[in-house]
Amino acid sequence: MNSVLEHHCSVTPPFTMAGHLLLLVLITVCSETKGQVTDLEAPKLSVDPKIITKTGSVHLNCQTPAPVTDCFYSFGKTPAKKLPCRHSVNGSTLLSLVGRDSPGEVSVTCFYLSSRKSPHSERKVISVQDLGPPVLSVHPSVITEFSTVTLFCQPPVYVSTSRCSFYSLTGLKWEGPSCVRTLRGSDLMKNQRPPTEQQLKCYYFENENTSPSPHTATKSTVTVKDLAPPTLTMMPSVITETDTVTLSCQPPSYVSASICYFYTTSGKSLHVTDCVQTLRGSDLLMVTQSPPTEVQVHCLYVVQLESATSTSPHSKETNVTVQTTTTTKTTTTTTSRTTAHLFSTEPTTSQEKTTSQNPVQSETAKAPGSENSSATKNLIMWLTIILTACGATVGCVMLVAAFFCTKKRKDKVKSQDSYHCEQPLSGENNLRGTEPEHAANSASVSVNQPNVQPDDEADPYHPYASIPDENYSSPKNNFQYSFLQMHNH
Fold first, then answer.
1. DSSP states of 86-97
2. Are 265 and 246 in contact (CB under 8 A)?
3. What is the pLDDT of residues 53-99, one digit of tens each?
4. Domain for residue 93, yes or no?
5. Secondary structure (3-state) at 347
6. Are residues 316 and 339 in the same domain?
């Protein structure tokens, strides 16, 4: 049938109307027939990994749209081979299929049959390489006998393995199922004492039945050092008993330590376990010591690894000066006077000033550790000023009150004296020329006496009429004594 249609398609139709219609029908039939022949889809090929070794394997997967079990693979320019659609092949087999012995690249395609042959898949390239050397890294490169170092033997990226071996050029060897290894400093010394160096290399195995890989191209060096003394710093270097100082015992950079001890050269242990600590000036002094004095401090650190413990040498001595704090008082005198200028008082206002025995230290800026002490001193100074001012105010009030009480007492005595010296008012003649000036001021007391009976015929204003017009001169003697004489007469 197909041959007949192809024969008709090749016939040249006459240039007539009927011939044109026949030509159109034949073209349509030929197109449908050719479409039925190329109806199958091409498969999709995947390879994993794309880079392998001679002993390594690559996984081939020819994904077909039709349900088939077998596929055909073409390697390079060789004829197609019938294999499972999912298949694994090693690098040596790939090289033999293309007739090669040395590493290189191999191209591969696939197709399938479903009543007829499908189109070929896209071409994939697989690289077959020899085993490459690993790369060895160490961290840290400087350790102590009581610290550890981590070794990492890294194979090439196209090699999948977890079995590596490490060795030193001095004959030490460490094998294991892992490509990561942790060693102690003591494991690298081989009956040696620090400081010492070890040059290390490694290699790997791709699988259990293969030969080892090439060794690392370069050597990695690990240095094992002895414990070095720490560095001690103290800030500030001049303090008082109440001030604070910060002590820092810093181990070397290649040592990891968190426990430190501080000592004074006089034999006192400060019992501190933190490597950074803040202490008061009094904490640095022995019982028999008193400021001002200079204290020398040194420290050491402790390293631990499992059950092993070791202490470092002592640091260099660092000096800190502990001074005493003295208090001096400056007095300011103020004078208060009353309005009568009869009494005066001199309250004092005291202001405490704290000075250090070291004049240079007092002129310079305060150290960071003495901020709390300065705040306390300022508070005491202001409290002293306020209390002194309050005391002076209370003293002034008491003095003024005493002045007015004394004045009132004197006025009371005058009134009593005037009462006893007053003459009985028996007539106009007794009042004229004999009443002193101060008696006129006490007229109300004399008039109110119960024994005085005024004369009915007398002028009701006689006490005022009896005051003479001329000036009166008081007697030279005391007026109380003069009036008593007049009374007796």
1. EEEEEHHHHHHH
2. no
3. 988 889 999 999 888 889 999 998 889 999 999 999 999 999 998 98
4. yes
5. coil
6. no
Interior CA angle at 432 toward 427 and 433, to 5°? 145
Distance CA 241, CA 323 (A): 7
Reported confidence tier of residue 451, pLDDT bands at 50, 70, 90: very low
* Residue 155 half-sphere exposure toward CB, CA atoms < 13 A: 23
H or E stretch including 388? Answer: helix 371-420
Distance in angstroms (rounded) separating the CA atoms of residues 84 and 64: 12
Contact 203, 213 (CB under 8 A): yes
Residue type, 36: Q
Is 121 found in the same domain as 58? yes
Q: Which amino acid is at 156?
A: P
What is the four-CA torsion angle of 473, 475, 480, 485, rounded to 10 degrees?
A: -120
The 10s digit of each residue's pLDDT in 29-38 is: 555 544 444 5
Query: What is the model's pTM?
Result: 0.52
Q: The domain containing residue 105 runs over which residues?
A: 44-129
Q: Which residues contact 404 (CB under 8 A, 6 or more apart)?
A: none
| Whether the Cβ atoms of residue 380 and residue 352 lie closer than 8 Å to each other | yes
Question: The tokens of 403 are what?
Answer: 């002045």
CA distance 115 to 83: 18
Residues 331, 302 within the same domain: no
